[in-house]
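Homework-ish question, so no full write-ups if that breaks the rules, but can someone show me the predicted structure for this set?
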Amino acid sequence: MEKKKYGKQRDDHIVVLIGMIAAVLILMAFLKGKTYYSLSNLRSMIFQFPEFGILAFGMMVCMIAGGIDLSLVGIMNLAGVVAAIMIKNGSPIFLGVLVAVLIGAACGAFNGFLIGFLNIPAMLVTLCGLEVYAGLSLAITGGPAVNALPDSFKSIANGSLGPIPYVLFIFIIVALLVAFVMKYTTFGHEIYFLGSNKVAAKYSGINTLKVTVLTHMFSGILGGISGIVITSHLNSAKSSNGETYTLMSLLIVVLGGVNPDGGRGRVLGVTLAIILLQLISNAFTIMRAPDTMKTFVNGVLLIAALILDVALEKRNRKRM
Amino acid sequence: MANEVFLKLEGIKKSFGGVHALRGVDLEIRKGEIHCLAGENGCGKSTLIKAISGVHDVDEGKIWIEGEQVEHLHPIDAINRGVQVIYQDFAIFPNLTVAENIALNGEVKDRTKLVSWKRIHQVAEAAMEQVGARMDPDMLLEQLPVAGKQMVAICRAIINDAKLLILDEPTTALTEPEVERLFQVIRSLKDKGIAIMIVNHKLDEIYKIADRLTILRNGSFVSTGLISEYDTQRFTRDLTGHEFESKKYVPENAGEEIFRVEHLTLPGKFEDVSFAINKGDVLGITGLLGSGRGELGEALFGVTPAQSGKIFLNGEEIRIKSIDDALNNRIGYVPEDRLTQGLFMDRSIEDNTVVSSIRNYFHGLKLNESEMEEATNRWIGELSIAAPSPKPPVRTLSGGNAQKVVIAKWLNTEPRLFILNGPTVGVDIGAKAEIHAILRGLAAQGIGIIIISDDLPELFTNCNKIVVMRQGKVGVITDNSVDNIEL
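A: Not a homework solution, just the prediction itself:
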């Protein structure tokens, strides 16, 4: 019985998320049921969310480790630009993908090293990182976007298997991989320990520098994968693609029940939050609401998510 | 004057959800007396303090302050009536100066719009004089030792016209000379007619300072009376509900050498430290704060490694330059501060138990969850940790049980040397005896045990060798046939 009780507490966020998803679905059924529930709209949503969904997982692992990764969009664009130039100049696609992933890992390692070795707060390091990586892509491209990529590359994020877009498979594989790492590997557990109590982690023999570097490398790799997806999706790479995704991924992880102080959070919650945000964003498009409204609503949602987090936490403590 | 009652409680009851924290407590504190409130962890002491200071509204019972019955006491009412509480964390501002910490409260309360630095200094100086504390008023609080922070908190209470000063376990983080100083200050406040309530469960200290004593157990009132009415036996019986006998530890038969350090040195911290542990030995290391006892422990675990000297474990020379080295040589370390260094409070007992040995559960491609749960269940049983399952967060455990989880974490790594820094701080008497029994058992199995502590009676009972550190050097090494040591 006790066991059940502690299991249930952690699911509060999930319940709230499912409720909110249901609310959006029901509301839209009344407002614009036909368009919203069409196959083409469903497909357009699926084409959209993997690129920022994968970024959100990067944000998630860093935040669980007690930090944050604000440089993800910078890493995404740097990886995208380099891969696009390579592929445009004739190198095989897999090589471009590999380089994008390696660039992500390198940027992440750089972030992680500054955070773990020099003890500079993750917020500052990754914010500077965002500037550095965005600036680097700008310097490489010299301004204009890298366009007109080969069709085979375009099909990564625009092609489908029957009615199902390839990117959905990519997203599912990434989500399962992240879930597996967090739940079933030593590294994943060390991330949770580090985020719960850094000092105790050190005194328990966890190499906190190593875990910090690896966590940011993990995040960076996800940024690199996302760079491939968005570049293929837009058929264009530049330093300023997806600029709203930083705030968006932050919003997703907090909404998904990741504790902003670290130590707590699950892939399931974050996945539901990704779906919820895509549903809302799509609803705005269908309702033809102006983009300016969208930003405002996202901001309000983020604050609501923070309040929800505090409220749930308070209730849990009381129950004990 | 001396017998006038300042505070009187009758039948105080308070519950949280279904938990009865207080089940009817009576208490009477007179002006100019030092009253000690004793009880094991979780007996309701903290709840009672919060009831007196108005933080918690009581469910049932009556409270009189200076003969006047008060209902629904709010914190501000309590303060206005002269009740001041000094909590264990002192509620101070580490980045402000001594003077600011003492006097700013008053400035805020008087609603002055402009801060007069001159007045702040005057007020602070006056308060320090009254209390008998000498500190540089411009020093930042974070630079002060614990005892200094405590003095600042006391000064602040005094200038806020305290008539009843409540100190929550004021001596836990102090060394003996600092405790003496604190007691002098408390006695001088008593002479000024201030009522003082000290929460404490160290009997030797209670004898030194208290006039009267009230004992709580499980949220209920057990007994109250003059300190002279209590001997050790009655005190322990009233506190725990059963009798304890303490027998000094003597190893069954001394075996071969397990651990030895030679000329260990870390400049500025300790120097030329040498000692050895044989099979069956429990070695104690003591000394004043700043004597290097804590630093020595941290060096043996690789947190801040020694710069020179030799370390031998089971006859082989080993190098400890990092925590990784310590783990690879199977050295375990229970750090001084359980809450911040030892435990992940929001994580489960299971997570806390396997954290240092988690690699052992990674088979094939994934962690074996059932094996981790099984190991945790085994330790819950072996160390009799009061927990329904391995899943609840450690935050829900009492101090003693939480400390057992830290011990389980290291036992699960099968240590060859086990260092414990202050293993029973904030642990109730019952759990303390259990922890001591566990350590003796480990020593008998051939695990080298080092207990670092300033609790001398604890060392005399449990260690057959005691190293006394003085200013970074080994003062003496003695056995436990003595009853007191000059620190």
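Now go work out the reasoning yourself. Hint: The CA atoms of residues 11 and 269 of chain A lie 9 Å apart.
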